[in-house]
Amino acid sequence: MKNKVLHKAGSRGLANHGWLVSRHTFSFANYYNPDRMNFGVLRVLNDDFVAAGEGFGTHPHDNMEIISIPLEGDLEHKDSMGNVAVISKGDVQVMSAGTGITHSEYNKNSDRPVKFLQIWLFPKSQHVKPRYDQITLKTEDRKNKLQQILSPDPQDAGVWIHQDAWFHMGIFDKGIETKYQIRKSGNGVYAFVLKGSFTIDGTELSERDGLGISDADGVDIMSGQAGSEILLMDIPMNV
After folding, report:
1. DSSP 3-state assignment of 61?
2. Which residues does 46 contact at the CB level (< 8 Å), separation at least 6?
3. Model confidence at 1, in pLDDT bands (50, 70, 90)?
4. Does the reported pTM lie above 0.90?
5. What is the distance between the alpha carbons of residues 2 and 217, in angstroms, rounded to a whole number?
6. Which helix (H) or strand (E) holds 101?
7. How far is Cα 146 from Cα 23, in angstroms, rounded to an integer?
8. Which of 109, 189, 207, 217 is deepest in the core (most CB within 10 A)?
9. How far apart are CA 176 and CA 198, in angstroms?
């Protein structure tokens, strides 16, 4: 029998620093909820708004797979591996923090905000060599279908990470139905609605709602309105 956990948008933690407004699906920084520590290996799902010209100063990470998905604007990245890059909507950025890295993230623009998702997954291997990668995808390739943006295989579509995880994004017209088949036995799916609305396995979701489903082979998805956007994260449930 499928297990479900529903996280409504308004139930998330909130950090409002003026220059940064961040919504936390799971416990993070000053937001602590013992019932919201993780969903399988999904440890952090932050929905961040960074004001014009502002950003995160240099800070460290280790032993975490970190994925950034810009939703609006341009995010500038610099790290201790020597990478300097700007990511925008349609891009996906990954860092394997491994044995340790430092990096900074800033809104490149002085006249408009940047909005992006910051996602952390526990890795399947500890103390790997740190690495950075990014890719630009054609968002038209996710029209009324699920476009793979991340996997564990460097030869597969999208970016890759040190975890048995597959991420997909889709933009759907109203009433489009699709079925997602879970890629690995023992994995679950966490769905996050970016825009519009969806019904997933009978559960209605609105913008920025999240739904975790485990003990399932797949999930049935139907879009509720034109332009609805979704992120699906197929991830191991055993940490």
Report:
1. strand
2. 22, 23, 24, 25, 28, 117, 118, 119
3. confident
4. yes
5. 9
6. strand 101-107
7. 25
8. 189
9. 10
